[in-house]
Write a structure and sequence with these properties.
Layout: H1 2-73, H2 93-96, E1 99-102, E2 105-108, E3 112-113, E4 120-127, E5 141-151, E6 156-168, E7 174-184
Antiparallel strand pairs: 1-2, 3-4, 4-5, 5-6, 6-7
């Protein structure tokens, strides 16, 4: 009678150890699977955020370029400070600091000669005329560079407008997109 009793006890101990080992292995597998799914989800969120911020940066650059192009072509506010020979002539202070309005926000550009006696001058400005969004923690900004050069061959003034929109996302990554337009006046 005692012999059978000890056999049953020893069998139960063996089975309970195996169940514990099996439970630990299943828990480890589930934790590893959960971490893997979380890692994949985090990368997907980062990619989606980068795509969204890229699009916002592109639209900021496009908006700034369109605004500058409008003020150059339709309003003629960017000074053509060249004489008939293509040399930079002296422009007055108000000609070198034209005022323009983009999206209802007034901005003043300042033009400077790049090199003394050159046939080239430019202005660069950071334009922050976008409204802050309730869904985004940052406001897109556009840097705009307007360059005027004189083409000796065709006797034309060439205006190059470069706009660089950038946006810093919630994750702290900066995305920048640029557009350039060349206009022969």
């Amino acid at each position: 009678m005692y012999k059978n009793y000890f056999k049953k006890i020893s069998l139960k101990k063996t089975k309970s150890g195996f169940a514990m080992l099996f439970a630990v292995m299943i828990a480890s597998f589930l934790i590893t699977l959960g971490i893997s799914i979380f890692s994949i989800s985090l990368k997907e969120i980062q990619m989606a955020t980068a795509a969204r911020d890229s699009q916002i940066a592109y639209y900021a650059a496009d908006s700034a370029r369109e605004c500058a192009l409008y003020w150059d072509v339709k309003q003629g506010v960017f000074p053509p400070c060249f004489d008939d020979a293509g040399n930079i002539k002296s422009c007055t202070g108000s000609e070198l600091t034209p005022a323009l309005t983009c999206n209802g926000v007034p901005t003043t550009m300042t033009f400077n000669n790049v090199a003394e006696g050159s046939k080239y001058y430019k202005s660069d400005k950071e334009i922050n005329f976008f409204q802050a969004s309730s869904t985004s923690s940052s406001t897109p900004v556009a840097d705009i560079i307007i360059e005027k050069t004189f083409d000796d061959v065709n006797n034309k003034i060439i205006t190059t407008i470069s706009a660089f929109g950038h946006n810093t996302s919630i994750l702290g990554r900066r995305v920048e997109r640029g557009i350039q337009t060349t206009n022969n006046n």
